[in-house]
Design brief:
The chain is an alpha+beta fold and about 325 residues long. It contains 11 helices and 15 strands. It folds into 2 domains: about 5-170, 3-Layer(aba) Sandwich (Peroxisomal Thiolase, Chain A, domain 1); about 175-320, Peroxisomal Thiolase, Chain A, domain 1, CATH 3.40.47. It has helices spanning about 20-25, 30-40, 50-65, 90-95, 115-125, 150-155, 215-235, 255-265, 275-280, 285-290, 295, and strands spanning about 5-15, 15-20, 45, 75-80, 105, 130-140, 160-170, 175-180, 190, 195-200, 205, 210-215, 245-250, 305-310, 315-320. It has a 5-stranded mixed beta sheet with strand order 1-7-6-4-5, with helices on both faces. A hairpin with a 4-residue loop joins strand 10 and strand 11 (about 205). Helix 3 (about 50-65) packs across helix 4 and helix 7 crosses helix 8. It is globular. Bound molecules: oxa(dethia)-CoA. The site of oxa(dethia)-CoA has 18 residues, from helix 2, helix 6 and helix 7.
């Protein structure tokens, strides 16, 4: 490692339309009480006119408010719900904001996407390959939901979160460690299949682009693996659990956050939550909550544990120190 990495700016953008549990009661056999008790979600934001590019551009402009886009060397967009299979959302974003010198690519790791992208970017910066990196987590699940399926449609919301990082002297490094893993044998537990055509194009597969999920399996995976990966990343950084000031965890279900806190025997107040307002925003959820609570979380010398989990199955934790 030649350089350290530091956080320069956090930003987010959500669509304007709010859909409450009461709105869903009108179209589904569900109710506010069930959704609140089982998930902690009260409402979510849903795209109407907005798209990935809009959310990417708006969150990135806020993250770049004091920085020239031409100084950005790397853009990674973590997303699993892009409008285009190609070009990447990252290339479209680059064109829109004029980050002409950036290398750009998308990264697909579902709800763990932001964590995987953050580790990726930090390693480019640590090696000295790039000096400034913009990472954006975006997902628009509302376009990939079967709105008649109450087991999935109540969970997700749309949004984007962005982080600007910069290489710095090693003594100022904030990215302390990470632990990542994938469990491809369980890939069928959470999927969105694309529409495609078979040669010679007589048989176009349709209406398959919706979330299919084994909710219980994902729940059990999260409750078992998130504590393990928090501990393994802390161990690599030589930091004790009790030294962590905040655990920024993927916002999928309040019961998952509470169970992880219980398993680790950590005060639940150390697990900030905003899923009541936004639901599960997938790759956006970690930067969204981090940005929302930044005045609380980003205090000098605070130790932060970041964790994501999701389709793949994928899992990852990062240890970060604010300085
Ligand atoms: O980012 C990763 C993405 N995915 C996740 O994080 C999902 C993780 N899993 C979960 O959050 C939970 O498993 C769910 C919230 C999806 C489901 O909660 P659960 O406590 O596992 O409920 P369940 O699937 O066991 O269903 C319990 C009952 C069932 O009825 P019966 O069979 O007991 O009569 C369901 O049919 O609740 C019923 N149910 C609903 N009722 C009202 C399922 N969905 C709903 C609903 N409204 N929306």
């Amino acid at each position: 490692m030649l350089y350290g990495v530091k956080l320069v700016e956090l930003a987010s953008e959500v669509p304007t339309k709010t859909v409450s549990n009461f709105d869903l009661e009108k179209i589904l056999d569900t109710n506010d009480q069930w959704i609140t008790d089982r998930t902690g979600i009260k409402e979510r934001r849903i795209c109407e006119k907005e798209d990935s590019l809009y959310l990417a551009v708006e969150s990135s402009r806020k993250a770049l408010k004091n920085n020239d886009p031409k100084e950005i060397d790397l853009i990674i967009v973590a997303t699993s719900t892009p409008e285009y299979l190609y070009p990447s959302t990252a290339c479209r974003l680059q064109g829109e904001i004029g980050a002409d010198n950036a290398v750009c690519f998308d990264l697909s790791a579902a709800c763990t996407g932001f964590i995987f992208a953050l580790v990726n970017a930090c390693q480019f910066l640590q090696l000295g390959t790039f000096k400034k990196a913009l990472i954006v987590g975006i997902d628009i699940h509302s376009r990939f939901i079967n709105w008649a399926d109450r087991s999935t449609s109540i969970l997700f919301g749309d949004g984007a979160g962005a982080i600007l990082l910069e290489a710095c002297p090693l003594e100022e490094n904030q990215f302390l460690s990470h632990s990542l893993a994938c469990y491809g044998k369980a890939w069928t537990d959470l999927t969105i299949k694309t529409t495609y055509s078979n040669f010679p194009n007589a048989d176009i597969q349709k209406n398959v682009e919706v979330v299919q999920m084994n909710g219980k399996k994902i729940y059990q995976f999260a409750v078992q693996k998130v504590p393990e990966f928090i501990l393994s990343s802390l161990n690599k950084a030589n930091i004790k659990l009790e030294e962590v000031d905040y655990f920024i965890c993927h916002q999928a279900n309040q019961r998952i956050l509470d169970s992880v806190a219980d398993k680790l025997k950590v005060d639940k107040n150390k697990f900030p939550s905003n899923m009541a307002k936004y639901g599960n925003t997938s790759a956006a959820s970690i930067p969204l909550i981090w940005e929302e609570k930044k005045n609380l979380i980003n205090q000098k010398n605070n130790i932060i544990s970041l964790s994501g989990f999701g389709a793949g199955l994928t899992i990852g934790s990062i240890v970060w120190k604010i300085n």
